[in-house]
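Internal tracking record. Fields below are filled automatically when a chain is submitted to the structure queue. Please do not edit lines marked as system-generated. If the sequence contains nonstandard residues, flag them in the REMARKS field before resubmitting.
Queue: standard
Priority: normal
Entity type: single polypeptide chain
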Amino acid sequence: MKKLLPVLPLTLLGVSEMNHAYADELPFTLSGHVRVNYGHQDWQLPEFRDGFEFESIKLGVSGSSDQFSYKAEYRWYENTDFDTIRFADLTYHYDEQTEITAGITQTPFGLQPFASNNFWFSVNYYLGFEDDYDAGVKINHQRGAWDFQAAYFMNDEYNDAAEFGRYSFDVADDGEYRNQEDGQYNLRANYTGNFIKGGTTEIGVSYQYGEILNLDTLDDGDMSAYAAHLRHTQGNFKVELQYIDYDYDLAVPDEQADDRIALSSFTFPFLAAADGETYSANLVYSVPYQFSHIESLTCYSEYSEAKGEDTSGMRSSQWINGCSFGWDKLFVYVDSIQGKNMWFSGGPGVGLDLGGRQETTHRLNINLGIYF
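SYSTEM-GENERATED OUTPUT FOLLOWS
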């Protein structure tokens, strides 16, 4: 990654000039970002609480031809020293109501495309239920105010449970708890209506079922999850609510606990409750005022939690208050993150009583990105 940094300004300049000069000639569109990040973590030793670092580079490509469209995105992360695909899919637009997508594509589950508005996502992301991408095929059909989706995914994006350097959170083989995704079905239905004067409401349900191969016993367990979700926009305000119930029934060796499962992303595996619930609630306000060059100023308060339902379960929570805004090609997130017993907020896992740090922690996160 460090080898990319000296040539980065020239590369971005070349891409920007090419996008402007040849936009009408190229059969595809290039996009991307370059981001830096400042963080303050109150649970670290005083010498290590603050840090300003280069965070990531993203390159994307998209285009269309006749009834087909395609898109792909690849990312390089400096702060965790890995690179990964996010998505790469091809869509056939059968008609104005129906399209079929194949490749590494987003799983149709819960609030779409995101269940949060901050940089840090919600608890659902860390359990694989938000902005998740797997390898398979998906059908989307719109009928009036209804949006229906059905999908089958053969495996995760790498088909390797021991590969921790990935964007999406997936079932992992951490050397002790050794499971792997082995086929998954998704169904989602969403209705958009005007139930309140001047407002728009999206309400929907989602279902997911998959087989989980244990790499020690070579037997298949399974998992199931369902979600109820709502998004209401009223003027400059937006409210998002979601409930998820999930359960992994694992075919583990006799001597191993089946109340937990290993997940991984961003090069790190961790343990999460195998049977649990999540709740999330967001209040979002788009500020209607203009401040010189600042545009699209959005502020939010977003709470989410997960709790395992077995005796080993313990609540993990995340409460994020912050704002995001654009300034020409610069986009900024300023987030105050309070976490408790929460992975990536100083905690040992998600939804489990694993000992270790379980008190409330605080992180200040400021992300600055140039997008093109």
